[in-house]
Design goal:
Blueprint lengths: L7 H10 L2 H6 L5 H9 L3 H24 L5 E5 H6 L1 H8 L21 E2 L8 E5 L3 H13 L1 H4 L2
Parallel strand pairs: 1-3
Antiparallel strand pairs: 2-3
């Protein structure tokens, strides 16, 4: 902040709005925009997608090692639920850990699905999230039964 003369608000904007995926792509932090741009030949958008997929693969690999193997991997949240391309980018390279993506099963969108091949030693699932429901349940739990039931 001192070097650039940023105020705390400017630093917050820089770190949370202008860095990360947006900073790499120079285009957007919305993965839908990046996938479209990458398909149209935008090299920095493709690089941002590759960087993101690499980081997710790295975390999966680290957890597989830390847990001494896994039976399944679950991909969830908006990006994993709705992007066939990102799921493929993430799983490609994890075959050495027993994860084999079925291209046809991977076409599933917005529904619970197994997307691994029938013979994949590690099963791969897509499970949609319902963040609003989780927030509502946690809110009710934190309020306690006497507050909720009046």
């Amino acid at each position: 902040m001192r070097k650039e003369g940023f105020t705390p608000a400017q630093m917050d904007t820089y770190m949370n709005k202008e860095s990360g995926i947006y900073g790499v792509s120079g285009l957007s932090s919305d993965f839908r925009d990046l996938e479209e741009a990458a398909q149209d030949g935008h090299e920095r958008a493709a690089l941002a997608l590759d960087v993101y997929a690499y980081r997710v693969r790295r975390y999966i690999g680290a957890y597989v090692v830390a847990l001494n193997g896994v039976d399944a991997v679950v991909l969830t949240a908006g990006l994993a639920e709705n992007s066939v391309l990102m799921r493929r980018r993430i799983i490609t390279g994890l075959e050495c850990l027993g994860m084999h993506l079925d291209p046809l099963r991977n076409e599933a969108l917005g529904e619970e699905a197994e997307i691994s091949t029938a013979h994949s030693p590690v099963k791969i699932f897509v499970i949609p999230t319902n963040e609003e429901l989780v927030i509502a349940r946690e809110t009710v739990e934190s309020l306690g039964p006497e507050t909720v039931h009046g």
